[in-house]
Amino acid sequence: MIEEVEGDFTDTARSGPRGTLDVDEFFKRGLKRHLATDFDEAYVREGLFVDGADVDDVFAWARGDGVPVSRAWIADAAATLEAERGEPVTALDRWESFDALADGVERDSVTRRIREDGLDSVPFRREDERFRHPEVIEERERNVVVINVRDASGSMRETKRELVERVFTPMDWYLTGKYDAAEFRYVVHDAEAWEVDREEFFGIQSGGGTRISSAYELVAEMLEEYPYSEWNRYVFAAGDSENAGSDTTESVIPLMESIDANLQAYVETQPGGGAANARHADEVEAAFDGGDGVAVARVSEPGDVTDAIYEILSTESAADDAGGADGAARGRTDGGDRR
C-alpha cells in the first residue's frame, strides 16, 4: 500500500498548523507527567485515619512508599476532612498504624488504572505541543512486530513482575500509535522458554532456574516470520538480572548481536537495588556500551519507570539517526524498503 505521509522535518516551533503536530513528542511529554504524578488518592487519604498521624507523618509515609504525592495535596485533603468532621486529623483513628493500613487496604496500582482508563487519562498540555514542517513523501505502510520477553523463574516475585508491566505497557502503547500495523508476541522463560498470551505474560511464575539464552533462541525463530526488509522489529526483555553461569556472555550476547532489530532492550527489575548475583544487565551494558540499538535500563521502584522508558526510547532515536547516516549500519542496508 502506497500513501503520502509526513517525511523529514527541517524546523520545530511551539506553534503551527495542527497537521504538523509532533505526536510522538506530545505523547512522551504527557506520559512522563502522568507516570510521575499519578497515585491512588483514596489510599493516601486513608493515611489521615491512622491514629495520631498528622500531615507530615502521612507525607513521610506516602513518599517512603513510593507514592508521588505532594505535601500540599495531603494538607488540602486533611483540611477537607477536618471541615467535614469538625475535629483535627490527629483524632481520626481508623487504623492503629501505617502497617495496619497497608494490610487492610489494597493499593490501586497505576498500571491497572492505565489499562482501564486508557490514553484519555494522560494529562496533555498545550505547552507540550511541538510543530514541525514536513516534506510530503511516498511511503509504504509501516508494520512492526514487538516481542516482549520476561523471566518467569522462581526469583521473579510479584513486585518485580509489576515493575515489568509498568514499563512494558506504555511502550506497547507508544509503538501501537507509531506504526500502522502492530503485532505483539510474548515469551516467558525459566531455564526453558515458551510463548504465552498477554494476560499470562505479566502474571505467570514458575519454580525453575534461569537460562536467558533460551528466550533469545525462541525469539530468533519467531522473527523468521517477520523479514527485516518488511517489518520493523523490537525485542524487549526484562528480569532481575539473575542468570545461569556464563550464559549471558557465551550465549545471550552473541544471540543479540545476530538479531536484526530497530531496538533491543533489557530492563532490570530489582526492588531495593541490585543483588550480588544479578549480573546480566551489567554484562549486556558492557558488551554494547549504549550502541548497536541496545538499551539497558534499571527499575528498582515505580519512580524509576519514567526514566527507564526515556532511556529506551532515546536509544531508539539514536539508533535511527545512526542508521540514517550510514546505510550499512546494523541491518539497515535495505531499510528504505522496510514497511
TrEMBL record:
Region (Disordered): 316-339
Pfam annotation, one family: DUF444
Record field: compositional bias (Basic and acidic residues): 329-339
Residue stretches in coiled coil: none
Origin superkingdom: Archaea
UniProt-listed PANTHER family: UPF0229 PROTEIN YEAH (PTHR30510:SF2)
Protein name: DUF444 family protein
Organism for this UniProt entry: Halorubrum tebenquichense DSM 14210
